[in-house]
Amino acid sequence: MAPRIGVVTFPGSLDDRDAQRAIRLADAEAVALWHANHDLQGVDAIVLPGGFSYGDYLRPGAIAAVSPIMTEVIAAANAGMPVLGICNGFQVLVESHLLPGGLIRNSNQQFVRRDQRLIVENNRTVWTSEFEQGEEIVIPLKNGDGGYIANDETLKRLEGEGLIAFRYAGVNPNGSLNDIAGLTNERGNVVGLMPHPEHAVEPGFGPDTPAAMRSGLDGLRFFTSAMQALAQKV
């Protein structure tokens, strides 16, 4: 039986269907989860998708972090369930204190949309095991509030304990401290990042590569990494 990966939809989610498609392309079953329910429907992993949950009122991700289903998501993550937060989902993870620090308005005060080069800093997580340590990948990015911030003590801990999952390469598009594009928790089951791997999973729709236009598939390995980890538990 294929692993079941839930995708939570909040009011204002935009990329929940894209995340579901990425999950299916990785040969897992995508399960739609609704923000107002206290039911994870027995899923094996969870994706918090991109978008503008609750219209980004208060702070991006702040209201979604206290929505009913997050009680179950937080408990499941703390118990070891794999959780991936993409863009707004990363913001929700930070606001839920599953990952440290915060995310603020881009330093140039502009919404940024680009195919972004990333360096894989930690390939020992559930969501990154199919990457090589130090590998450069290209993942689409689109955000207005992607500037990662943290105090000096937190930054030292992230650097010292290898909790930076991805770092921006070439261009820092939003002013994130230490070029941080994504984080993992100590256990490696929770990963959050601002770029959108679900937009680089299918030929003809991903970033351009030297081989061909729109042929980039680096995002698919996030989901196949999780599949491999879940298969090992069976």
Explain what this protein looks like in three dimensions:
There is one protein chain. It is globular, with a radius of gyration of 16 Å. It is 22% helix and 24% strand. The strands form two sheets. Strands 2-1-3-4-11-10-9-6-7 form a nine-stranded mixed sheet, sandwiched between helices. A two-stranded antiparallel sheet has the order 5-8. Strand 10 (180-184) and strand 11 (190-193) form a beta hairpin. The mean pLDDT is 96. The protein has helices at 16-25, 68-78, 88-95, 152-160, 220-233; strands at residues 4-9, 29-34, 45-48, 83-86, 102-104, 112-120, 136-143, 147-149, 164-168, 180-184, 190-193. With 234 residues, the chain is α/β, with parallel strands linked by helices. It has a single domain, classed as Class I glutamine amidotransferase (GATase) domain (Rossmann fold, 3-Layer(aba) Sandwich).
Set out the fold topology.
Elements: E1 4-9, H1 16-25, E2 29-34, E3 45-48, H2 68-78, E4 83-86, H3 88-95, E5 102-104, E6 112-120, E7 136-143, E8 147-149, H4 152-160, E9 164-168, E10 180-184, E11 190-193, H5 220-233
Parallel strand pairs: 1-2, 1-3, 3-4, 4-11
Antiparallel strand pairs: 5-8, 6-7, 6-9, 9-10, 10-11
